[in-house]
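STRUCTURE REQUEST FORM
Protein name: CBS domain-containing protein
Source organism: Methanosarcina mazei S-6
Requested output: structure tokens
Priority: standard
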Amino acid sequence: MQKKTSGKKDDNAETEKNSRKEEEFSESMKEPSQKDNPREAEAFFESIVRGSEGCLWMTIEELMTRDLVTVNEDAPVEEVFSLFAKNPYHTLPVVNKKGELAGVIDLDIVLEILLLCLMPRAKYTPLAARRSLGENAKEIMITHPVTISLNSTLKDVSDLMMKNRFDRVYVSENGKLVGIISKRDLVKEICRRRKMDA
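Status: completed
Returned output:
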């Protein structure tokens, strides 16, 4: 009986200790407007935006990569495999005759086709079967890729990437593919600005 009672006391003490820690944590995470000292609030904001504030509103045109290797939607599957084998690409944009982004092929799709015999039964879907029989880029690509416009800001593209967990986003202008921007591009720019401000 005594052991059970002391156990409950220990549990209560532990719970109280945890709730105090949570209160301290939530106090430290209060928005600056809730803090008493306006200088503290200002310093809090500065620490968050230092290095990134200056580039949040810059257009992605300044950061994106323009020299893209693309593949035509009529290109044979073997040509697609060859491009992935020779180059360190994660994705390959597929364009139509007008230069518009028609789709994207990634390494997962390539491996799925090349290693179809090793694929678990659960993943053997009609789409996987159809792709394995595809003869050109159009028949194996992911359709309706996400794009962002050329005049979008760094803030716009970072929001899109973080909310949807994209590593890279293609950039279009008047429907045509003009570039690509990746998380690495954003990190490099923000770090560069932080060094300049230090």
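Reviewer notes: The domain at 74-143 is CATH 3.10.580.10 (CBS-domain). Confidence is low (pLDDT under 50) at residues 1-9, 21-35.
Form closed.
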